[in-house]
Design a protein that fits this description.
The structure is a homodimer of 295-residue chains. With 295 residues, chain A is an alpha+beta fold. Chain A has a single domain, classed as q2cbj1_9rhob like domain (Jelly Rolls, Sandwich). Chain A is built from 6 helices and 9 strands, in the order H-E-H-H-H-E-E-E-E-E-E-E-E-H-H. Chains A and B meet through loops of A and loops of B.
Chain lengths: 295, 295
């Protein structure tokens, strides 16, 4: 007889009196601003991300969609004047769709969303920043930072929280690798599981060649998630076959902000309403768009 | 031979690589905007607040200073037109000094401040809101809320965190009771230690007469702190000898916001520079006034 693993719902403390959140009726956003159903992470993906602090989903984008993103990324870097001013960012043109891509929303619904600030019209989290990383051989300075998020006090969102059956990622980085990444030739470096570390990092981490550092390889169009509570670093790009073409975005809870960044106001104005909710003012109270804040 | 209790410094995880915060050199603000040295909590006060979730400091204000506050608050309720428009709040007139009173800053340095966002010119926390509570017999409705903050996910700041030797209070309420409060005649009710509760509150809490509820009595001019992670409630005012005259303020980390509240812009403009830092924009990065953000 095949073994079955018992799963039960996590006990997530809701706003008042220690009651458990009614997970089945939590209004996590079910579709993106383009009406596409979100893609929740699988049980394996949840397990891996919580344990390791990072997760790679290979080849999410492909074909014409990927080509369109790559072309825009290339123009953004090499011919920015060919793009209207307010669109000159990785939130512009076709790249904007990546801000609330179905896989992104599904992941953030699990690891970041605050249910009371989420509805079918309104995402339960914020977008903090969005930058293009274009690297050729020699680019990128090794600089280990962050880590030990599980025991950090709040104050800058670089934290990780967990209870049986549920993780919470705090300030969350999302990377779209639009070009291929070869193993140990420039992809981001991680100290796997360091978001839950309790000890100070040893001196051996000071070398980017140390085996303490993990990394990845992936085809073009891959999607990478990591919690900013994880120790990580840039790795110098050494891949001579292609440049790094990546979008680095950050997401946070609706009531918290790390970055000193906001999208171009004209770009924001032109976005679909649901996508605009990613950029609403930073606070919790009265900030559920289109519905009374539930508390 | 007298027993000696060993104290050692808590290991507070700093921003990078799991290093411990250098507590000795943390730039917590030592003087208020009036130049008065802050009053840190005693070891007993720290112990009691962390354990219970609330702390009363009786009779902080007295004499002429108290009388001046009472008179302004009375006018605020009964004769608001006698006060310039931008000062018509408990942040106006002499009450403004309470927002960064030495006892308040000392307490918040211990239980809320983010050291990297604190300096001698800049408080390491924000002020979220400030309201006047004026209650006569029959006022206020019993309404238990919040609680279980220790195991809550971030999302609305109603959390409590702790490690050996240090507590973090999250969204913190600071109350100035400008008039006397009699025991169980209208002072705020608390379920002591419920900020660390792991079970759902029982139905017995639904009665304000249940002995599960703790409260206090105090002379005029007393100062009350509680974490919003604690289960608490208003208690109907029944004291016939005096009305309740209290300022209820809330404080939070610099990078987080609960309330949809801002001070009057003209009032803010007229404040001393250091006091203004209580109201700076909500974010962590580049938000240490007058100094480089240390991360």
């Amino acid at each position: 007889m095949a073994e079955t693993t018992n799963h039960t719902k996590p006990f997530i403390v809701d706003k008042n009196l220690g009651a458990a959140l009614d997970i089945d009726n939590a209004q996590l956003t079910g579709t993106t601003s383009e009406g596409t159903p979100v893609v929740p992470p699988t049980q394996e993906q949840k397990y891996l991300f919580d344990m390791r602090g990072w997760l790679l989903v290979p080849g999410v984008l492909s074909g014409d969609e990927l080509a369109e993103m790559q072309e825009f990324g290339y123009k953004l870097r090499h011919e920015p004047d060919s793009i209207p001013e307010h669109e000159r960012s990785p939130l512009g043109g076709p790249m904007q769709r990546l801000a609330d891509h179905p896989n992104v929303i599904g992941f953030l619904n699990e690891f970041l969303a605050h249910p009371a600030l989420s509805s079918q019209e309104c995402y339960g989290f914020r977008m903090e920043s969005c930058s293009l990383f274009y690297r050729t051989v020699g680019d990128g300075n090794f600089g280990p930072h962050n880590g030990n998020g599980m025991l950090r006090f709040p104050g800058d969102s670089h934290l990780y929280r967990c209870i049986p059956g549920r993780g919470y990622s705090g300030l969350t980085r999302i990377v779209w690798e639009l070009n291929p990444v070869k193993y140990r030739q420039g992809g981001t470096l991680f100290i796997t599981a360091s978001h839950k570390a309790v000890y100070t990092a040893p001196e051996t981490i000071r070398s980017q060649d140390s085996l303490i550092w993990d990394t990845y390889e992936c085809p073009a169009g891959s999607l990478l998630f990591f919690t900013e509570a994880l120790t990580h670093s840039t790795h110098t790009w050494t891949n001579e076959e292609n440049d790094r073409l990546a979008i680095f975005s950050c997401y946070n809870t609706v009531n918290s902000k790390w970055h000193d960044w906001d999208p171009h106001p004209k770009l924001l104005e032109e976005m679909p309403p649901k996508r605009q909710t990613l950029f609403r003012p930073v606070r919790a109270a009265n900030n559920l768009i289109g519905e009374a804040y539930r508390h």
